[in-house]
Design goal:
35% helix; five-stranded parallel sheet; 16 helices; 2 domains; alpha/beta; Oxidized Rhodanese, domain 1; Rossmann fold; eight-stranded mixed sheet
């Protein structure tokens, strides 16, 4: 490409800003033009979405869309490097747009402050060229995967938990999709989320930059992407390993004879709909305090992980993690009233159902978990 043509495609300021790209023969002016013309949607503006969006903005992706419905919380700041302490309490997308626009005023930031769903996913995604999955739950991953397959869009996927991260590229014409690797979701409650299990703060940065690199390669058409390969990082040992993924001809969404031709109910598919208990099986923090003040011999059962109980607890509790509860029901006294609690009430509600199925009749849970106990009864305890 002639220097005159380069100046027509890119402004002098853009040539200077992206000069280190232009010096790469694999990218050059033509590759940078492709980046400028690209439209990328990042679903999730959290731990993974932060490095993805920052590096894509810096790389000169012309239009960057962000989907997220959440507010910035202090607990985000350990890993979500897009935000600062002054952003706490604000909309993530408002804060993200300001930060990314300051990084690169020449690009367009489109924000979508809502939850991606079966009702809106196809309309939203079809306005973009590539989707980057920065979500943290299975129903969102299956939803994004299926929508990408139906629309023919590459899905640059990443996930992190504790010390392990994964990245791959799904839903390309000749490559596998997420369902080829995971035909069915894991049983509800088997895999905790970051809010329950924790995550090493730098890990989303590593995986997110890998996602950003894959996105740039797809746009510019250079190198070998992670299509057909799952890259797994063990950050404790700092070891990468690779698992080959074959396209499944029987896959219900991308196979030879697909049976999924429209988006489905992903909460039902993943079994993640909230557990709804009868009112008599729930106690508010105030009701629990009243019963304890009366001296009732309640068994307080904390079904969080031990490291969570080290942060805060209700005095007199015993700790049996939710995943260990089925094997330890024999240690519980059926003759006592058992009140179960967790962080916010989700695991404890499932634990009530589990114990009822095992024949326990005197069980209830603390609605809102220990967070409600701290808000209403013991505000001196820390939250997490």
């Amino acid at each position: 490409m002639s220097s005159q043509r380069a100046r027509e495609v890119l402004s002098n300021e853009e040539i200077r800003r992206y000069s280190r790209h232009l010096l790469l023969p694999e990218v050059g002016v033509e590759g940078q033009r492709k980046l400028k013309d690209a439209r990328v949607l990042c679903v999730g503006a959290g731990g993974l979405g932060s490095p993805v969006s920052m590096y894509l903005a810096a790389a000169g992706v012309g239009t960057l869309g962000l989907v997220d419905f959440d507010l910035v919380d202090v607990t985000n700041l350990q890993r979500q490097v897009l935000y600062t302490s002054t952003d706490a309490g604000q909309s993530k997308l408002i804060a993200a747009r300001a930060r990314l626009s300051a990084m690169n005023p020449a690009i367009r930031i489109e924000i979508h402050p809502f939850t991606l769903s079966s009702e809106n996913a196809l309309d939203l995604l079809r306005g973009y060229d590539i989707v980057v999955d920065g979500t943290d739950n299975f129903q969102a991953r299956y939803l994004i995967n299926d929508a990408c397959v139906l629309l023919g869009l590459p899905n640059v996927s990443g996930s992190v938990l504790r010390f392990e991260g994964q990245a791959s590229v799904y839903a390309t014409p000749r490559g596998p999709c997420y369902r080829c690797l995971h035909p069915e979701p894991p049983p509800p409650g088997l895999v905790p989320n970051c809010g329950e299990a924790g995550v090493l703060g730098v890990l989303p940065g590593i995986i997110g930059t890998i996602q950003a690199a894959e996105t740039v390669k797809i746009i510019t058409g250079i190198g070998e992407t992670l299509v057909g390969r799952l890259l797994i990082l063990d950050a404790l040992r700092m070891r990468f390993r690779e698992v080959r993924i074959a396209k499944d001809p029987d896959c219900p969404v991308c196979g030879t004879h697909p049976t999924i031709r429209q988006l489905i109910d992903y909460e039902q598919f993943c079994g993640t709909a909230p557990v709804v208990l009868a009112p008599e099986l729930e106690l508010s923090a105030g009701q629990l305090r009243t019963r304890l003040d009366r001296g009732e011999a309640l068994m307080l059962l904390d079904v969080r992980e031990p490291q969570e109980a080290d942060i805060n607890s209700i005095p007199g509790s015993i700790v049996i993690p939710f995943g260990e509860l089925p094997a330890k029901t024999a240690t519980l006294d059926r003759s006592r009233d058992i009140v179960i609690y967790c962080k916010a009430g989700m695991r404890s509600a499932s634990a009530v159902q589990m114990l009822q199925a095992a024949g326990f009749e005197r069980v209830a849970h603390l609605k809102g978990g220990i967070l409600s106990w701290i808000d209403e009864v013991d505000p001196g305890q820390p939250k997490y």
